[in-house]
Amino acid sequence: KNVFLNTVVIGNMDQAGVLKKLSRKLDKEYKSRSARSPKDKILLINLLFDKGLQYADINRVLELASQSGFGKYKLIIQGEE
Fold first, then answer.
1. Torsion angle of alpha carbons 7, 11, 1, 22, nearest 10°?
2. pTM of structure
3. Separation between Cα atoms, residue 25 and residue 27, nearest integer Å
4. Which helix H or strand E contains 23, and what residues bound it?
5. What tens digit of pLDDT does each residue of 11-70 get?
């Protein structure tokens, strides 16, 4: 149930407060990227999920990304190696 943002571990969905932490990081990431790109460009974010994550959890993360301003998503599922 690990959640990553651009290959950096944010936390585990079972941890209290992980969604708030993720929301803050997404807001910061969006502000940083939007300052460097044209105003009309839709920003892409890579979201890497552990394959054991439930769809409802993935949906919550997508909602947070959308609320932060991201309009395009690349979903990456990490499986067993």
1. -80
2. 0.80
3. 5
4. helix 18-36
5. 888 899 999 999 999 999 899 988 888 777 788 888 888 787 888 988 998 999 999 999
Backbone torsion region of residue 17, taken as left when φ is above 0, otherwise alpha when ψ lies between -120 and 50, otherwise beta: left
CA-atom Rg of the chain in angstroms: 13
Give the type of residue at 9.
V
Nearest to 64 by CA among 21, 34, 32: 21
Q: Which amino acid is at 70?
A: F
Quick one: tokens of 24?
Answer: 């803050």
The residue assigned the tokens 């395009």 is 72
3-class secondary structure, 24:
helix
